[in-house]
What we know:
Blueprint: E1 3-6, E2 12-17, E3 27-36, H1 39-48, E4 51-56, E5 69-72, E6 74-75, E7 86-92, E8 109-117, E9 123-131, E10 137-139, E11 147-153, E12 158-160, E13 164-168, E14 171-176, E15 180-189, E16 194-200, E17 206-210, E18 220-226, E19 238-242, E20 247-250, E21 255-260, E22 264-270, H2 277-287, E23 294-295, E24 304-308, E25 316-322, E26 329-334, H3 335-339, E27 349-353, E28 358-362, E29 371-377, E30 382-388, E31 390-393, E32 398-403, E33 407-409, H4 455-461, H5 479-519, E34 594-599, E35 603-610, E36 620-624, E37 627-629, E38 632-635, E39 641-646, E40 652-658
Parallel strand pairs: 2-11, 7-29
Antiparallel strand pairs: 1-3, 3-8, 4-5, 4-9, 6-8, 9-10, 9-11, 12-15, 13-14, 14-22, 15-21, 16-17, 16-18, 18-19, 19-22, 20-21, 23-24, 24-25, 25-30, 26-29, 27-28, 27-30, 31-32, 32-35, 33-34, 34-40, 35-39, 36-37, 36-40, 38-39
Amino acid sequence: MQLSFNPPLGKTTTIVLPPQGSEADDEVKLSFTATFEVVEEYARAKQDGVRVEMWTDLPMKGRDVGEWGAIAFKDVSTDQVHEVGEAHPTLSLFISETEEQRAPETLPTLRVDISTHLHGKTHFSFTYRLIYPSGWSRWLGDFGHNGILAVERRDPRFNLWHDWRTPKEGVHVWETREPCLDDVEVGELGGGLGWSFWALGEDRRLHQYSMTYPPTKSTTIFALPRAAVNSITSYQLIVLLASQGASITVTSFGAIRFSSPAAGSVTLRGLEGSADPRRFVEDVLGSMSDPSCRLVDTDTSAGYAVLASPESTLPTSFSVIPLALNPTSRVSISISSLLEFSPVSTGKLCLFCPASDEHHIIAPSEDSSTQSLVIQTSPDGGQFVIAPLITLDAGTNTCEISIVTPYSPLAAEPEAAHRLPTPPPSPPPVHRTVQFRPIPAPIIAPQPRRAAVPQAIRADDQTKGRPGREADRSPPRSSSTVKKTTSESDAHVLAMRRYALLLLKVTMWFFKMMFMQVFGSRKGKKGDKSPTKTTRASPEPTRTPVVDEPPAPAPAEPEPSTEELPPPPENIPSSPEDHSDPPSPQVFPAKNSQTWVDVASKSIALIVKPSGPAASVDHLCFALNKAPKQPSVKSLVDGVFLVRLSGDAECGRLMVSVNN
Length: 660
């Protein structure tokens, strides 16, 4: 019979334990395993009644210090299930695996768990033996080749830098009186351990993380140490808590970093020895700066704490957090305890695990106090949600749906825009130009024609830079010359205004023709004989004034143009062919066959159970932000389907409808 043991014989195994405290709080849990190398040998030994035992001087209840005694190994498969009342359906929290991903079956393994207080000594011995039904003992270790356990006293879970204080056992505090805008490293997690995390997110829900993708900028982090595969010790949970407004980050190298816009602190709480796990969790929840989690009434002696999300969240999420590195186990929770945290008080509820895609539909009844749900969880814990079932009724087709991703229900149906016809596409913007009355030119009385001035005199007038007093003696310009210059300037301005007005009319005519070509003729206009006006009188040619000649009397004030400007886009009469048909009833069904919610995730999951005589998941229609979505459908058990949708943003408005 070939067996392999952990820890092995003939070697010294070092176990690192936290600094020694009081004897009551210094309990240590050790696990020893024995594995059969051949499956047939395990079956034969079980049939023959062969018992595997460990012989050790570890302190045990009822023994004196240094006294040797035997402890029997037990089959791992016969672990007791912690349950409340009669066991009911089992919900697995294991990650769903395909046949190719499933690990091969493990060899038969026996285990012995010891809870002891290692006081007074730092080295302990052990060996193994087989006990046959006849009473004969077969020792598996040679004389002088026992296994040795060496105890080293230090906390392997964390290393804290300077300025930490310990107000009481198991509680460590680091404070700052100044803002820490940049992350400040205040300590590190144990480097020889693996870690799994549960951190409080911005949505006030707990999310699970690993060392590969550790939590960042959280106010509360539950950190569970994961010892090496061959380790015989399991280390208990620690919790990092930030003060109000501060945050904690754990890097992939295990560094603990703290940031705060003002004075703040970070607290590290560790579950020590034989401390009451429930009292520890209650103290942690009471110390949170954001009391978002609620403790479910369960038996924490099973090694797990079940925390529920805040009351205002839908669906309600339940996080099963290990308090120590336990083997795979099952925990039973009473249905009545879950209903206390249910989002609704009446109606059917759906329990769903996102990791395994397993579900259960329950209907609360008077017998809920005696019913229980068995949770099968991994050593790292898991998460499941409870969501209400919504009935969509379209006459012959009825479906019950449950939205199992975070969402917010709408207090009322959104504005029924679907009952109105869809407007046509917006035309190009046309800016309406307001015509202003032109400013009349000043009326200047005609002056008598002046005599011609010799060219020589004109040349002398233009001569510049005369020295002395000759320049001052230049005769001043007559008033008639000033009036002539002003009149010529006004005539030029008036001509330019007429030219600009003509150019504006031509431009408006061009845009009007283009607008009517694109959007059709204007109907309902009195006197129109054709749908589109295609001809227009040619504009008047402009008159260019001759500046060298004396100005003519000022023209009469022009009347404002009576040319009709094109109406703004909002005043264009619409015709049936100008817009698309209204949405079909399949996309926008009747009010009693649809539901609207605001989702807060890119990946949306729904549990669908068709219940009508001819109902099918194909009768459901989905729209996200008014855009139809094609679902991905997976068939579960009992005629239930898992429907998944993918969005383009972290949030959006989801519409689910059923039609005939």
